[in-house]
Write a structure and sequence with these properties.
Number of strands of chain A: 21
CATH architecture of the largest domain in chain A: 2-Layer Sandwich
Number of helices of chain A: 17
Oligomer: heterodimer
Radius of gyration of chain B: 16 Å
CATH superfamily of the largest domain in chain A: Sulfite Reductase Hemoprotein, domain 1
Shape of chain B: globular
Number of helices of chain B: 6
Number of domains of chain B: 1
Distance between the termini of chain B: 46 Å
Strand content of chain A: 15-25%
Shape of chain A: globular
CATH topology of the largest domain in chain A: Sulfite Reductase Hemoprotein, domain 1
Strand order of the largest sheet of chain B: 2-1-8-7-6-5-4-3
CATH architecture of chain B: Alpha-Beta Barrel
Structural class of chain B: alpha/beta
Number of strands of chain B: 8
Helix content of chain A: 25-40%
Radius of gyration of chain A: 23 Å
Distance between the termini of chain A: 54 Å
Largest interface: A-B, 34 and 28 residues
Chain lengths: 550, 166
């Protein structure tokens, strides 16, 4: 993984010093609430319902064991013993005291971590495929490019006060595991007809109040031009994006109002003027960055069948919580952070420390965060998956549910977030309680359920196969349900099935939707495929045919 | 009372006057040796201001296009960008374009809402003159030392120092 050099280290230390001084001036009354707000947000610090919330960046989801140990240690010493992994591969602490945040940042800096630009109207953490570098059909590892973007965007003097936040995702495989189509900019590594590797650039995707799928702005960008092209996109957005209305300020609204052709014309006109500037990425820079992501020292192994002859619990875990690896004899192992009674994406200090130890023992000391709020060990020897599973199972980290109904994405909701209309964690619990029969859950196959506590859509409900949105109805929390959304390479936005339902009725509503699927599915088609084939009508009819029994 | 500001790393007394302030005070602008005119007034009364006997400056609002100055930039000794509040970042782009695309070499001034926490970024976008609140003038200079290195090329005209880079 990328290791800081002296310059990276110094910059992060200087950032800590800057923020320490800003916090001191705020506490001394030299900065107003409003002035401090814009400074603290650029260091990931929100002032929330109960306490500040601090969002720490995990660039493209990659952590060393030392970093994860530090995250656990911070959870214990500065928070209430847990952290929350988010859909953008960050971690959030919900209870730190404002006065201690500079100290937390200083401790993070000792393990090459920070909270730079994790909030505010600036370029945010660049996210990527959690299987980068290990998935079998990847064109090229996207992480060196993520790091190139991370550096370019860090403290970018021109783009620190954009009309609104700006999120970039990079993928290098045909499957899109980074939700890149709902990012402000999606960067896809592609090959052109001449066999050259470059980028397809998309812009204008996003969720929130106005969900939009990103559109292709450029089919093929030679790779030396990545930064100049991004700079052109950002410059057009910085000057032309709306600033009169917060809900219309994202780049998606600009792209939509200009039309993608006109937007592209403006970007390309700007790019023509800067593409041969110092922003050009030279081969030496790419080679240097790639050397940070060299494959670990894999053993020469053959593929095996570790699940054969083992008990059913391990077989289920192996089937659902592990994935193919490009190197023979290795396997990707997911660590599910989803189970009944725990907020999706939460991990305790002890769990983080345990997982750090397991990473050292089984996976070259690295851990990844997925955008579906789980962790994974990317490089586990197949023959050692059984002993890994035994330890995970003993610590409640082996829920065999990756990609299934109970692997829900969920925002922190009203319990933690001052923006939310409705709680989401307790709804996740209701769903978990209702669907506790794994045979049924497995029979349903691949199913994405995503839930947000408000229109800001932190839980990506628009692109859930089943999406659940908390809405406020006369002071009471109700839930609007959508179906047919998808976040991958075939991304689509879900359709609202009808009037919102009461919290207690959410599980039954889902059960009815699933009953239609089970009756109507053809062959091994997924829930999503059945919805796409039949449309919303039969699902809607079933849900609203009879009232949910009290 | 003349304004104090930070220019090229020094606290100085401002030798420039804003047209709108003078008009509000009923002062005859023809005799002012260094006058800053809003871009809108320059555009609508160009011949009049082009003939101004003293030095001339222009102040841009965030929505103003720097392209409008392309063919007349030589006439100005000062260009100011107005920052209406802590969130509007269009002026940063205006500054870079003026320095890098239009090769403006005169005084590039940040006006309006300008605070020490913005100075490092403003300076990296080419600004070399800053209308800070009086109580920040003495201490703001340390802001230029915020970071010792940079990850991306920009325009460090206003920083008056070289940042380490790769």
């Amino acid at each position: 993984m990328y290791r800081y050099d002296a310059m990276d280290k110094r910059l992060v230390d200087e950032r800590v010093a800057e923020f320490r001084d800003q916090t001191r001036r705020f506490l001394a009354g030299e900065l107003s609430d409003e002035e401090f707000k814009h400074l603290r947000l650029r260091n990931g610090l929100y002032l929330q319902t109960h306490a500040p919330m601090l969002r720490v960046a995990i660039p493209y989801g990659l952590l060393s064991s030392a970093q994860l140990r530090m995250l656990g240690s911070i959870a214990r010493r500065y928070d209430r013993g847990y952290g929350h992994f988010t859909t953008r591969q960050n971690i959030q602490y919900n209870w730190p005291a404002l006065e201690t945040v500079p100290d937390i940042l200083a401790e993070l800096a000792t393990v090459e971590m920070h909270a730079i630009q994790t909030s505010g109207n600036c370029i945010r953490n660049t996210t990527s495929d959690h299987l980068a570098g290990v998935t079998p059909n990847e064109l090229e590892d996207p992480r060196p490019w993520c790091e190139i973007i991370r550096q370019w965007s860090t403290f970018h003097p021109e783009f620190n006060y954009l009309p609104r936040k700006f999120k970039i995702a990079v993928t290098g495989a045909p499957q899109d595991r980074a939700a890149s189509l709902v990012h402000d900019v999606g960067v896809h590594i592609v090959k052109n007809a001449e066999g050259e590797v470059g980028f397809e650039i998309l812009a204008g995707g996003g969720l929130g109040r106005t969900p939009i799928i990103g559109q292709v702005v450029r089919d093929f960008l030679p790779r030396e031009h990545l930064l100049s092209y991004l700079e052109a996109v950002l410059r057009v957005y910085n000057l032309e994006g709306r600033r009169d209305n917060l809900t219309k300020a994202r780049i998606k609204i600009l792209v939509k109002s200009l039309g993608v052709e006109e937007f592209k014309k403006r970007v390309e006109a700007e790019w023509e003027l800067i593409k041969d500037s110092a922003l050009r990425v030279d081969e030496a820079q790419v080679a240097r960055m790639r050397s940070h992501f060299n494959p670990p020292p894999y053993k020469t192994l053959a593929d095996s069948e570790p699940a054969a002859g083992k008990d059913a619990a391990f077989r289920a875990w192996y089937r659902y919580n592990t994935a193919a690896h490009k190197v023979p004899g290795y396997r990707v192992a997911y660590i599910s952070l989803k189970k009944a009674d725990v907020a999706p994406g939460d991990a305790t200090d002890a769990q983080m420390e345990l997982i750090a130890d397991l990473a050292d023992r089984y996976s070259f000391g690295e851990i990844r965060v997925t955008h579906t709020q789980n962790l994974l060990l990317a490089d586990v020897e197949q023959e050692r998956t059984f002993e890994l599973w035994q330890t995970l199972a003993a610590h409640g980290l082996a829920t065999p549910n990756i990609g299934t109904l109970t692997d829900m994405i969920c925002c922190p909701g009203l319990d933690f977030c001052s923006l939310a209309n409705a709680s989401s964690i307790d709804v996740a619990k209701l769903i978990n309680d209702r669907f506790d029969d794994y045979d049924y859950v497995y029979d349903l196959g691949e199913l994405d359920v995503k839930m947000s506590g408000c229109m800001n859509a932190c839980g990506h409900h628009h692109v859930g196969n089943i999406g659940i949105l908390g809405v406020d109805k006369g002071g009471e929390a109700w839930y609007q349900v959508t179906i047919g959304g998808a976040a991958g390479a075939d991304a689509s936005l879900g359709t609202v099935i009808g009037p919102s339902v009461r919290k207690a009725d959410v599980p039954e509503t889902i059960a009815r939707l699933l009953a239609v699927y089970v009756e109507q599915r053809e062959g091994d088609e997924r829930f999503l495929d059945t919805v796409r084939r039949l449309g919303v009508k039969p699902f809607k009819e079933r849900v609203y045919a009879t009232p949910v029994a009290a | 009372m003349p304004r104090q500001l930070l220019r090229n790393g020094q606290v100085v007394t401002d030798d420039w006057r804003y047209l709108l302030e003078l008009e509000a005070a009923g002062v005859d602008t023809a005799i002012v040796p260094a006058l800053i005119v809003p871009l809108a007034r320059w555009t609508s009364e160009r011949d009049h201001w082009a003939a101004h006997p003293g030095r001339l400056g222009v102040v841009l609002q965030p929505a103003d296009k720097v392209e409008q100055l392309g063919d007349v930039i030589e006439r100005f000794d000062l260009i100011a960008a107005e920052f209406p509040g802590p969130t509007d970042g269009r002026g940063y782009t205006q500054g870079r374009l003026l320095r890098e695309r239009y090769r403006f070499s005169g005084e590039l001034r940040a006006a309006g809402y300008v605070r020490r926490d913005q100075l490092f970024y403003l300076a990296r976008c080419g600004f070399n003159s800053f209308e800070l609140p009086d109580d920040q003038l003495a201490t703001a200079m340390t802001a230029f030392e915020t970071f010792s290195a940079e990850y991306q090329p920009s325009n460090d005209e206003g920083l008056r120092r070289t940042l380490e880079h790769r």
